[in-house]
Design goal:
Length: 558
């Protein structure tokens, strides 16, 4: 029985408007609650009186212990044994599929995510797009969508002209082979330092980019070298993060499709010339002019994104095109959608910019050009190193210490990002990232490990648990927390916000720890032990499901 659905069915016999049930924050307020504010406005009564009027019309069904009016809410109390049996049995039956409502119904969704720049380090600036995009993709896939993840690499643009000039002037083949990304990064920083003193370097860079666009062999060879080294390094990081893509594709893929886009815009009469450049006037959308092609004939990121959006829509027929990109790109996506609308594409509104806030630093904004970027590899290494030192102190005999440290350390970094609402900026704090107490990945991992230890020690598989024995408040709270998983997943998917699941699983782990401190899991009472073991098996499964949706592997020992 779906209690929520049955309660709504009961209410709709008397209330015709759209109803939303909430889960009360306290067990004393029942399992479900109907807020009566909007109903009260229509009845021209106070919410309390409206709730009383609704209650007077209801006939209490067999599965409910009670229905009460508490202030402006109508509260429903499901029979505890029935509720426990329903929730725990559902988890143990569905296992990895628990929480899957299949609302996606096979519809295709494309997620453009990660998208680091070739010949530059994989910095912390790209971590958010990578892990948020991955979690959104996993959640939508879990709910029945066909998800296509695209890593759209920044492998084209004037920065490659700069890299070529820098490499020709100051590059070293030996350093490039030994540590390619660090060497290319040093060259990029040096170019901008030197360009402040010698303006001709910028002209040289534009010339080299023209050679690249023109297909000159030396420029193409250098570009392929830079790209190959970058992809090798990026793949090492993605492997550590356990992130895979449906498609890895660079901006360069659309170079030979630019003419078609320009012709399409000309045919629609929206392309204008301004001082030798080609633009689109977006005043009707209250947006600034969009630059489509520079005066020197170079195409821009926006032009390539137009080609990419049209190509993806035609090729995959997605219901939505999601772009997990930083909030500073809002204007770019507003212009992209506006131009697509001017071109007559009604699906332009199916483009959604899932933006995220930035990491903030005490010394100000990070800048690749100025050389103050923080490498994601350094963050992962520091986190893993800290875990190793903790294992050495607390559990030196642990098997596979290296592997365990890698999983815990990496998941700590991922969880630290995802526990934050994606729309907010995050203060970069080494201490917080590497703190394993409180709302952290290691805290959740430890709860899972503790449950695994209890289950191993108990050594039983409950056959017919008596859920009526689960009478303690800590047990009831834990069961109620498990029941909220479906809503957490649905809310996370609807808002494209992984932090909803991250906060949920922290709450679940905290609820388990309160239960563990109060209730003896294995006792002489075999029936009670069996019921509690079944409860713990359900908690373990929901923790695993939650962490999987966040892109994190759980451990059984640490």
């Amino acid at each position: 029985m779906d209690f929520k659905k049955e309660i709504l069915k009961l209410l709709r016999k008397h209330i015709k408007e759209d109803l939303q049930l909430e889960t009360p924050p306290d067990l004393n307020f029942g399992d479900y609650a109907l807020p009566c504010f909007s109903i009260a406005r229509k009845l021209k009564k106070s919410p309390n009186d409206a709730a009383k009027q609704i209650l007077s019309k209801l006939k209490k069904p067999m599965f409910l212990e009670d229905i009460k009016v508490l202030g402006p809410y109508l509260n429903f109390y499901v029979k505890k044994e029935l509720f426990a049996k329903q929730v725990i049995s559902d988890v143990l039956k569905k296992k990895k599929k628990y929480g899957n409502s299949s609302i996606g119904n096979g519809k295709t969704v494309i997620i453009d995510m990660s998208s680091p720049n070739i010949a530059k380090p994989f910095g912390i600036g790209h971590l958010r797009s990578t892990v948020i995009g991955n979690s959104v993709a996993k959640t939508l896939s879990f709910l029945g969508y066909k998800v296509i993840t695209i890593n759209y690499l920044g492998d084209w643009g004037t920065q490659f002209g700069k890299m070529m000039v820098a490499y020709k002037k100051w590059g070293s083949q030996i350093r490039l082979k030994k540590d390619p990304i660090a060497h290319l990064y040093d060259l990029y920083v040096r170019f901008h330092q030197e360009a402040e003193k010698n303006k001709k370097l910028e002209d040289n860079a534009r010339e080299w980019f023209r050679k690249l666009e023109g297909g000159e062999k030396e420029a193409i060879d250098l570009w392929k070298t830079f790209k190959g080294h970058s992809l090798n390094k990026f793949n090492e990081i993605y492997k550590r993060l356990e992130i895979r893509f449906s498609l890895v594709q660079g901006e360069s893929y659309y170079n030979d499709k630019m003419d078609k886009i320009l012709i399409l815009m000309k045919d629609k009469g929206i392309l204008k010339e301004s001082e030798g450049a080609l633009i689109v006037d977006l005043e009707s959308f209250n947006l600034p002019v969009a630059l489509i092609q520079k005066a020197d004939g170079a195409n821009l990121y926006l032009t390539r994104d137009l080609a990419a959006a049209i190509d993806r829509k035609n090729r995959y027929k997605p219901a939505f095109l999601l772009y997990e990109v930083g909030s500073e790109q809002k204007l770019h996506f507003d212009q992209l959608k506006a131009i697509l609308k001017l071109l007559g594409f009604k699906w332009a509104d199916d483009i959604l910019h899932i933006y995220h806030g930035l990491y903030k630093f005490p010394e100000g904004k990070i800048s690749t050009r100025k050389g103050n970027i923080i490498f994601i590899e350094d963050i992962l290494d520091k986190s893993v190193s800290l875990v190793k030192s903790i294992i050495k102190k607390k559990n030196p005999k642990l098997a596979k210490k290296e592997k365990v440290a890698e999983i815990i350390g990496t998941s700590a970094v991922i969880f630290n990002d995802l526990i934050n609402d994606r729309v907010r900026d995050i203060d970069f704090d080494w201490n917080k990232i590497l703190d394993f107490e409180g709302e952290t990945g290691p805290y959740v991992q430890y709860a899972h490990v503790r449950i695994c230890s209890i289950l191993k020690k108990a050594g039983i598989k409950p056959k017919n648990p008596d859920y009526g024995l689960l009478k303690e408040n800590e047990e009831k709270e834990l069961i109620q927390k498990i029941s909220k998983f479906n809503d957490a997943v649905a809310d996370s998917a609807r808002q494209y916000k992984p932090h909803i699941i991250a906060k949920y699983v922290v709450d679940l782990a905290q609820s388990f720890n309160r239960f563990y401190q109060t209730c003896q899991c294995i006792s002489k009472d075999k029936n009670l032990t069996e019921a509690r073991i079944a409860l713990l098996m359900a908690v373990k499964q929901v923790i695993e499901n939650s962490m999987d949706l966040l892109g994190i592997k759980v451990l059984e020992e640490m």
